[in-house]
Amino acid sequence: LDLLAGWFADPGFVEHWGGMPLARETVAAKYVGRRRPQVESLLVVADDEPVGYAQYWCAGPADGGLDLVLVAGARGRGLGPDAARALVRHVCGTLGWERVTVDP
Questions:
Q1: Structural domain boundaries of the chain?
Q2: Helix (H, G, I), strand (E, B), or coil: what is residue 58?
Q3: Is pLDDT larger for residue 37 or for residue 57?
Q4: Could you give the 3-state DSSP secondary structure of residue 1?
């Protein structure tokens, strides 16, 4: 929770997420644990260090969407596309999705 709360309080981070800085309590309610059964929250990790947040959600039996944001120091290194590809492989290969929407 401390890691995510710090990230979501950072205006530079949430600018790429599409929102405003969030209080710790809001982060706990929205992004930690099971918010909704169809939403999975994940950390993006590179070289054993957390560098971002991702989530995917089911919209139907064979489709859904992805959201992904990286901390400033992780941007521009190809980690975002790598993380997105890994998520797409998971949701298509493991969950059987046929259609994936990525929220910019």
A1: 2-102
A2: strand
A3: 57
A4: coil
